[in-house]
Amino acid sequence: MAVTIIKGLCIGCGVCTQMCPSGALSVQVKTAHVNAKMCTECEECVFACPNGAITL
Ligand code: SF4
Ligand code: SF4
Asked: Cα–Cα distance between 47 and 54 in angstroms, integer?
């Protein structure tokens, strides 16, 4: 399991990549991507995203 990135809402700001304690997030071609094997579902990124682009 892992969080879901809502691509239509993601602006590629990178805030979530800095907040993730597991290093599971990266920004590629201006959109965030999650490595499902690394995500622990801690929800830090869900609260950190300024655009509401991450859901669990
Ligand atoms: S914080 Fe939100 S808008 Fe910014 S890159 Fe991550 S998912 Fe996209
Ligand atoms: S839920 Fe936690 S571990 Fe998963 S991508 Fe977000 S910040 Fe990283």
From this structure: 8
DSSP strand E in the chain: where?
4-5, 25-28, 31-34, 54-55
Are the CB atoms for 40 and 34 separated by under 8 Å? Answer: no
Measured from the alpha carbon of residue 10, the closest ligand is 1
| Ordered structural domains, the chain, with CATH | 4-55 (3.30.70.20)
Helix (H) or strand (E) holding 48, with range, is: helix 44-48
Whether 54 is in the pocket of ligand 1, judged by its Cβ within 6 Å, is yes
pLDDT tens column, 4-26: 999 999 999 999 999 999 999 99
